[in-house]
Write a structure and sequence with these properties.
With 226 residues, this protein is mostly helical. It has helices at 10-29, 36-59, 74-85, 97-118, 136-170, 175-181, 199-223, and strands spanning 4-6, 183-185. It has a single domain (4-223), classed as Fumarate Reductase Cytochrome B subunit. Strands 1-2 form a two-stranded antiparallel sheet. α4 (97-118) packs antiparallel against α5 (136-170). The chain is globular.
Length: 226
């Protein structure tokens, strides 16, 4: 096994666990009337995280950037998936082709789920902050799409967790540990610049994270009077 090196920066790791907790809470609270306000608030915060992750994909460290796991052809994704089933470790510190695809799907689905939730209304107990700006047809579409998107998020999360367990316990790759301490086998590749563990990067991420999360809640939760 290649020696370990810094790969996942704090904000990728923090966001990973934040999303895990957020998705679990959303699945539990979605059908509980007494939790509907908390469900909506967490949805707004998740939308802020999606914005953060999109920006971080361009200004973050090497393996957080989308350029390190670009969208590839279906053939390459299937080849990557085949390597997983045959227990062949891919020689990359960051996301594999199929792992990168999962990241894109997760961002799209979580973003659309949050957006559809904020555009929904049941005309009785809940009205999303975007509902007043939309036509009734779009609100009806959001009402129908939100539960479907929520189930799709749950499906991809279950698939992701299953894949992590396969890598961890069958292929003996320490993926779970890596999402705590940020270290992974380097396979002879550079960590890139900026260093994933640098204090300057940590500060840059903090500023961006605060702006995205605070901005999302400030605009959608406070300014629009939700």
């Amino acid at each position: 096994m290649s020696s370990s090196q810094p790969v996942w920066d704090f904000w990728v790791r923090f966001g990973h666990w934040l999303i895990a907790l957020g998705v679990i809470f959303q699945q539990i609270s979605g059908n509980e009337l007494e939790l509907i306000d908390a469900h909506a608030t967490v949805g707004i915060l998740l939308s802020g995280w999606v914005i953060f992750r999109l920006v971080w994909g361009f200004i973050g460290p090497k393996y957080a950037r989308f350029s390190s796991f670009p969208l590839t052809s279906p053939k390459q994704v299937m080849h990557s998936l085949q390597r997983v089933f045959t227990k062949q470790t891919e020689q990359t510190p960051g996301h594999t082709a199929v792992g990168g695809l999962a990241v894109y799907l997760m961002l799209i689905l979580i973003g659309l789920t949050a957006l559809s939730g904020m555009a929904s209304s049941d005309d009785i107990l809940f009205t999303g902050p975007l509902e007043p700006f939309l036509s009734s047809a779009l609100v009806d579409l959001a009402n129908q799409a939100h539960p479907i998107l929520s189930k799709l998020v749950l499906i991809i999360v279950i698939a992701h967790v299953s894949a992590v367990f396969w890598h961890q316990f069958v292929m003996k790759e320490p993926l779970i540990q890596g999402m705590f301490h940020g270290l992974k086998p380097g396979f002879g590749q550079s960590i890139g610049q900026p260093n994933p563990f640098s204090k300057l990067l940590l500060l840059r991420g903090f500023i961006l994270f605060s702006l995205c999360i605070g901005g999302a809640y400030g605009i959608l939760g406070i300014y629009l009077g939700w």
